[in-house]
Amino acid sequence: MSGDNIESGHDPLQRDQTQQTSKSEVIDLGPSDSEGKITSEQTLAQKLKKRGKRQNRRGPGSKKTKGRKDAIFSEAAGSVHTSYESKNKATGLSAATSFSTVDTVLLDEDEIAALTLAVPVLPHFELEEIAHDGDIFEVAIANDVINTGDRLICEAPAIAVREPTDIEAIYEGFCELTPHYKEAIWRLEANPAPHLENLMAHIMEMIKYMVDLYEKGNAGRTADEEKELDVMEPLLETYCKKWRLAARFSHNCYSLTNLPPSERHQIPADEPLSGLFPTVASLQHSCMPNCHVTYNHAIGKMTVHAVREIQPGEPLTVSNIGSDVYYLASAIDRAQRLDDVSSPPCNCPACDERNPKFAALNRYRAQVYGRAQWLSAKFSEMDIDSNTALRNSRSLETSVTPNRDDLSRALVSCREMLDFLKKAGCHDVELIRWRQPLVAMSRELGESIRAIGFAKANVQLAKICWGEDNEEYLTLKHELRKMEEEGRMQGPAPGGSRKGKGRAK
User: Do both 297 and 403 map to the same domain?
Assistant: First the structure.
C-alpha cells in the first residue's frame, strides 16, 4: 500500500477491496497533464536548485525505534533521536554519513524531467498483528514474491512538524487526520522520550489534586471546586492524549533533513523537519534487512524498496541502528545497541546462535569493522576527509597529492571491504558509500575504465534502493554520464590498451 497525501482525503491505511485486488499503483506526483507528468517543471527545477545549495539533506536522519510498552503513567525512557554531531560507534565516522550517501549536484533539464516519471508502487504485503510486551501491534508481511528493487511503500507523512519535541504541533496535526489515520497511529508502538517528562509531571500533579477533590465527596466540595473539576477533567484527558501521541511520534518518526542542528538555519522556517509515517513504522528491525527506507525530497514522501528478493511470509525489515548493524561484529553488542534505542531483540541469522551461518556472518562483520578502521586511518594519513570521501566520487578533495602506493593499497582494502559487506548480508546503500571512494581513487590513479565500472555499479544499486525519481540516484547517473563523456573525449590509452580494465565489485 502506498501513502498518498492526506490532504487528498484518501486514506492509504484503509484496506478496501480496491487495494486488496490491485497489483500495482502509481505514485501521485501532483497536478498532472494527460501524460501523467508534473506540469510545473519550472517550479520543481527551482526547488531542486535551491536544495542543491543545501548539501546533504538526504534520507532519514533519525533512526526509527521500537520497544517498550505504552502506559500513560510509565516513566519516560531514553531519547530516540540520535545526535547528528555524535560519531558512528563502529566506524568513527560522523552519524550524518550514515544517511547522506551522495553530495548532490545541480541537474540539467533532462535529469529534472526524469523526476516527473511515475514509479510504480507494488504493495505486496499485508499488515498482520503480533503481540509484544503484552500489547498488539501490526507488522508488514510479504504476501507475494517481491523482486529486488520493487518499491513497496511511497508514503506522505501523516504528521509533519518542525521539531519532534513540539507537542502542540504534533497534536494539531493529529486532530486534522481522518479517523483511519488516527486509528493507525494509535496502533503504533510508543516509547516516551525525555522531553515528555515535564508533561508527565504536570499530569501527575493534576491527578493528585483531582483525587484530593474527589475524596471530599459531593457534599464536601465547594462550588468553585466543582467548577475546577469540570474544567480539569477534559483538560486531563487532552493532556494524556497529547502525551500518548507524542510518545508514538518520538518513537516512530523519521527526520526529513540530514543537516546537523548547527546548520538547520539554512532551511526555510516553514519547512518541517520530522515526519510520522504509519505504514513505514510497521517495518521491523533486522541486522540483515531486506528493505531500504529513504525520504524522497523530490516527491515529499518516504519510499521503501526491496534490496533483495523477498518470499511470501517474510517480514519486511530495516535496520533500527543504521549502518552500525554491519560493523558490530558481536551479536551481544548489536543487542545492546537495539536496547539503547528500545528495539526488540533481533532473530536474524547473524543474531541467532543456533543458525549455522551465525559464526561466519559475525566474522565477516569483524572484517568489515577492521577495514573501516584501517581505511579511516589511511584516509586521514593521506589528508583525505573520510566523510567527504564516502559521499563524493568526483575527487578526493585533498590538499596534497596522495602517494600512488597508498592509493592502491586503500583501493584494494576498499574492494575487500565491499566483499565482506556483501557476505555479511548487506545489500543496501552502504555498498554505494564505500564504492564512492573507489571511483575517486580509480580516477586519481588514471584508471578511468575501472572508475566507470564502479560508478555503473553504484547507479544500478541506487536505482534498486532509491528509485529513478530520487535526486541522489540522478546525481550518480549524472556523474556517470560525465565520466563516460570524458572517456570518449580522451579516447583509448596509448598503444590501444584500455587502462584499468577489470570488473567492478
Answer: no
